[in-house]
Write a structure and sequence with these properties.
The protein is mainly alpha-helical. The protein is built from 10 helices and no strands. Mean pLDDT is about 80; it is low at about 355-365.
């Protein structure tokens, strides 16, 4: 009996389809496991970030001190720096709290008057009704808000536990991460050790470059925002600059959101003109970040196309919230760099002239 004819296109599509299903199932299984143990995953990610930032410092300090003591000095110095910045922010908030409350009350009245005039012409009774509804909502949902606050206190325990694990893991990563990686590769079959070592080194090189680059970009953004808000007289300039620093770790999205918060503060405290200047600042900093800082600072890491970055951030946010938004871009960068390293190794292993033309895939690179 003659077999039915199947077109070559359908055979190829079916071959790729079942492979994609297997890969998709594997990725889903990995994310399912990470979802069950997300505190451990977050802690290890923070440990890798701390290692990428502090290991060069520890290597420098180790030139004059024993390795263990150099790691201890580096970690204590890093923790002291972070606590000092938080203390500075807390002092700034405490020092401006009374003035800020007064300015916000005046600012809210100013906003109401502004909305009542052209071109908005809102009814004053509608604004008063909104305030009354907010008060009623807070009064009627007081128990719910209190239970959420208690639940948030419970989440604080999980956060502190993850931070403790991150600190504990970073000690070993900074002290002897290369020896740990060599031990791991030694446990693999001999035929795949070279490829795993190549992939791991490419991944770490990209992750380190991305971490250094994004921290530098975030620091420059925070300085620009802090100086601009201080010159404009916007209250809480230091906390808002710190918010900009952390928001910059979410590419394309974080900085505009943080500056939108600053614009609201400026609107309430200084009026619509200052808020409009802050909105213009959002555009200027976005252009500086996208066209100057990222191309220059991130040149040692894999440069991704803005569309890939946007899709990665959205997918990470959908999968794991704010943590996924932060992790998505470095994860995609690492995966892509590993792919490139392994592809180049395969090409180098082929006889001369057997590798063919350059493979497609440049869409992930920035243009």
């Amino acid at each position: 009996m003659q077999q039915p004819h199947v077109s070559p296109f359908l055979r190829t599509a079916a071959a790729y389809a079942w492979r994609l299903l297997v890969v998709g199932a594997a990725v889903y299984a990995v994310f399912a496991v990470l979802g069950r143990f997300h505190e451990i995953g977050v802690a290890l990610f923070l440990a890798l970030v701390g290692t990428a930032l502090l290991r060069p410092v520890a290597n420098l300090v180790a030139r004059g001190l024993p390795r263990g003591l150099a790691v201890a000095v580096t970690l204590v110095g890093g923790i002291a720096l972070v606590l000092g910045v938080l203390a500075l922010v807390g002092e700034a908030v405490a020092g401006e709290s009374t003035t800020l409350v007064r300015e916000f009350r005046t600012g809210i009245d100013r906003i109401e008057d502004w909305l009542e005039r052209p071109p908005f012409r809102l009814n004053p009774e509608a604004l008063s009704d909104v305030q009354a509804r907010i008060g009623e909502f807070l009064s009627s949902h007081r128990s719910t808000l209190l239970s959420r606050a208690v639940s948030g206190a419970g989440q604080l325990v999980h956060v502190l536990t993850a931070l403790a694990l991150a600190l504990f893991a970073s000690v070993f990563f900074i002290h002897a991460g290369d020896r740990q990686w060599a031990w791991f590769c030694g446990q693999l079959p001999a035929g795949v050790r070279t490829r795993w070592d190549l992939a791991g080194r490419a991944a770490w090189r990209t992750f380190t470059g991305y971490t250094h680059g994004i921290v530098l970009v975030a620091a420059v953004n925070a300085v620009l925002v802090g100086v601009a808000l201080s010159l404009l007289g916007v209250p809480l300039a230091v906390p808002l600059a710190l918010l900009e620093f952390f928001a910059a770790f979410v590419p394309l999205i974080g900085s505009p959101v943080a500056l939108a918060v600053a614009a609201v503060v400026a609107l309430a405290a200084e009026g619509p003109l200052t808020a409009a200047v802050v909105v213009a600042l959002i555009v200027v900093i976005g252009q500086i970040e996208g066209h100057l800082l990222h191309p220059l600072v991130m040149s040692w890491a894999v440069r991704l196309h803005p569309l890939v970055v946007a899709v990665s951030v959205l997918a990470g946010t959908t999968a794991a919230g704010i943590v996924g938004a932060v992790v998505a871009v470095p994860l995609v960068s690492v995966v892509w760099s590993v792919h490139l390293a392994l592809r180049e190794a395969r090409r180098a292993a082929l006889p001369e002239g057997a590798g063919g033309g350059p493979a497609a895939g440049g869409a992930l690179h920035s243009t």
